[in-house]
Structures are given as C-alpha cells and as structure tokens.
C-alpha cells in the first residue's frame, strides 16, 4: 500500500471563526454559525431564504502576514490561503526554513463552486485583468502553492460537495506512492451570493426556517426541511509517517483508507438506499484493512435535506450491523459545499486526537428513516477508527478512514 500517511497540521476558516480552536470550541459548546444573510439583500434578489452560515471575519485579516490579496484572489481562494497558513504553521513548518523542500511538497485543494461570486459580480461588465485568476477553480490550490512554496503535485478537484474529501484522498495517494513527502490538502467554497443562494432556493433545497436561523440546519432530525448554505475552508497537512517521525512531529491521526464511487443514478438525488455511498464506505474500509465492526465513530455528510439524510442513513445501516455513534457538524456550520468534507476531515482528526466526539446540533426528534445513534452532546471517548463521508451532485461520493496514533 506504500507509505503510512499522518495528519500533522490543521487549518479552518468557518462560520464559527477563523481558526481551528474557534471552530472546535463552537462545536463543543453547541454554537450555531447560522444567521441572517448580510453579504447581499435576499429580498431584493427575489430569494425566499434569508439564512446562511457566513464566515464572520474578513479573510484578509486572518493570516499572520499579507499573503491574502483580494486584488487577485477570489473569496474562496482567500479562505484557502488563510486555512493553509494555519495548517502549515500548526504542523511546525515554516516555508522560509532551509529544511522545507518545496519540490517534495504538494497542494490539493478542491472546490464546488469556486469563483461563482466573482463571475456573478463581473457579469455584464468588461472583465478586469484579474478577473480570471479570481474565479478559476484551480486558483485556490495555485495561490496556496505560491504562498507556502509547494512545487510538487498540484490539483484542484471540482467534484461538487465531495471535492474537499476527494482532494484529501488524492493527496493521501501522493504521499503513499512517494510523489510527495508532504501535501497541503483540503477544500474551499464561498457561494453565499445572489446566484449561489438563489440557485439552491430555486431547487427548494434550502431550509425555510428564516425566523429561527440557529435551528434551521437539522441533520437527521425528523423536522429537517432543507440545508443552510455555508462557506469557508478546511486544510490539513498530510505527511509520510516516517518523514514526520524524523522531525519529531506529533500527528493528530493517521489516514489509513480512502475511497471514491459514483452513483450513476440522478443529477441531484443520491442512489436509492444510498447504494453508491455504501460501496464507497466499504471500499474505504477495505483500503484501510478494517472491517465495519472496528469503526468507533462516523462523521456523516448529512446536510439536513429530507431525502439526502434518509439515504445516507440507509447506507450506514447497510454497512454497519450495529452503527457506531454518528455526528454531522452541518447543524453548526451549514453546508460549505466543496469545503465541507475538508472541514469535517480536520474536525475528525481533532476529534480522534482529543478523544471527543462533537455533537449534532438541532437533533431533537428521531426520524425512523434515519434510525442511527446520533450524538447530541459532546462525548468523551477513545476513538481508534473513524469514518468521514461526503456526497455530491452528479452522484459523486468520497470517504476517509482516520485512526488514532
């Protein structure tokens, strides 16, 4: 299988704050990042929903230097650079140090809608010279690579809401097979704009709980009525275990399994009974050399949509005879699209390292279609093996296995 891969650094920009610590504390405390949309006027745009999980800070204020440049970076890329700066520093690296080997460092940053807001803003006008570089999907990975001086493999999956998970899966394979010693990997999205929110609103995919934003996203709950759009970025530093050991780094967790499948079923709806996601989880566990009974925790994709959550629950019940504790953090953070899987990967790595499973916010009424052991309060427990799942439009699935080190 190649070299063992560990997580040595974490970076997050979410609706709960601009750091891993702020996000983690908000998850533990049961804080919601949802509120009325402030980035534009939904009513003026003809949009019914007025709820989103917006990042509460200006990305240009996040990193400890001037690496975020909003003159050439779209908001989605700014988030990625900020999260990457935290992750690289958390891993104990300084790209200016002589022991940083740029040719052996890769970049893998996925995005679902990337520069949609920038494209929307430029519509009908003569594009500025910086328009293309502010909107292209691969520019988050490109800017991250330039900011941290990473000259190894560079990619940018655009696989909808599985993009962040797919970016990490591909990065794991880079390290396993010796294409890189270190990869800065994750996902980013910033689609809270009239076109972004309006598109989901037109599909009737959004929650209608405008009067109570904090209660709008309800993963697996019987009263869920749609997702809440989020934004942000999650980045992890992946490293060969022997490489980390040589520099006395302390990993958060090991990534031992990766998997990807397609439903070949429907452009938006998951396959009946979640069969595509089931196969993905099974492949991921096989890749890790683990059987379902060994799994202690599942971080579910669960977006708070009636059909999506029910079909994911069916997939989990078909994989696990006795499902382990299940959490979805989208009750706190909303659905950050291509960033979601990467944000959740960072959360799972922290969860495994700390021995705490974060709760699922707003899970109050059991739904027989989602009969799972959903965690509703922070749970202090040793997690040896955890699975994180993702799914996206077009029937694209991804999963990762994390293990305690």
Automatic annotation (TrEMBL):
It comes from Haloarcula pellucida. This is 3-oxoacyl-[acyl-carrier-protein] synthase 2. GO terms for biological process: fatty acid biosynthetic process; isoprenoid biosynthetic process. Belongs to the thiolase-like superfamily. Beta-ketoacyl-ACP synthases family. SMART domains: PKS_KS. GO terms for molecular function: 3-oxoacyl-[acyl-carrier-protein] synthase activity. Keywords: Isoprene biosynthesis, Transferase. NCBIfam families: PRK07314.1. Residues 2-404 form the Ketosynthase family 3 (KS3) domain. PROSITE patterns: KS3_1 (PS00606), KS3_2 (PS52004). The keyword Transferase applies.
């Amino acid at each position: 299988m190649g070299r063992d891969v560990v997580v040595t650094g974490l970076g997050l920009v979410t609706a709960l704050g601009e750091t891993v610590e702020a996000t983690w504390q908000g998850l533990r405390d049961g804080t919601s990042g949802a509120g009325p949309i402030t980035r534009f006027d939904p009513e003026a745009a003809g949009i019914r929903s007025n709820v989103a999980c917006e990042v509460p800070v200006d990305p240009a204020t996040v990193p400890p230097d001037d690496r975020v440049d909003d003159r050439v970076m779209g908001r989605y890329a700014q988030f990625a650079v900020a999260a990457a700066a935290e992750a690289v520093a958390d891993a104990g690296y300084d790209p200016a140090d002589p022991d940083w080997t740029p040719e052996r460092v890769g970049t893998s940053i996925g995005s679902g809608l990337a520069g949609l807001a920038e494209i929307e803003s430029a519509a009908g006008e003569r594009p500025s010279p910086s328009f293309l570089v502010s909107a292209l999907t691969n520019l988050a990975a490109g800017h991250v690579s330039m900011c941290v001086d990473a000259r190894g493999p560079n990619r940018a999956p655009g696989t909808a809401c599985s993009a962040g998970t797919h970016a990490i899966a591909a990065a794991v394979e880079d390290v396993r097979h010796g294409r890189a010693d270190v990869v800065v990997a994750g996902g980013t999205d910033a689609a809270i704009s009239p076109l972004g929110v309006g598109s989901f609103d037109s599909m009737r995919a959004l929650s209608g709980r405008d009067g109570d934003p904090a209660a709008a996203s309800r993963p697996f709950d019987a009263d869920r009525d749609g997702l809440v759009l989020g934004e942000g970025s999650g980045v992890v530093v992946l490293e060969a275990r022997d490489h980390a050991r040589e520099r006395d780094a302390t990993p958060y967790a090991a990534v031992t399994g990766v998997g990807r499948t397609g439903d070949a079923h429907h452009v938006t709806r998951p396959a009946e009974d979640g069969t595509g996601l089931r196969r993905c989880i099974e492949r991921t566990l096989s890749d890790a050399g683990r059987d379902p009974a060994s799994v202690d925790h599942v971080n579910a994709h669960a977006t708070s949509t009636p059909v999506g959550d029910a079909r994911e629950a069916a997939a989990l019940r078909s994989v696990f005879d006795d499902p382990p504790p299940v959490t979805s953090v989208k009750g706190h953070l909303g659905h950050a699209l291509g960033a979601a899987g990467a944000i959740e990967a960072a959360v799972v790595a922290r969860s495994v390292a700390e021995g705490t499973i974060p709760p699922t916010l707003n899970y109050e009424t059991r739904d027989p279609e989602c009969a799972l052991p959903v965690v509703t309060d922070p749970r202090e427990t040793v997690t040896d093996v955890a699975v994180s799942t993702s799914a996206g439009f077009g029937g694209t699935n991804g999963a990762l296995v994390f293990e305690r080190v």
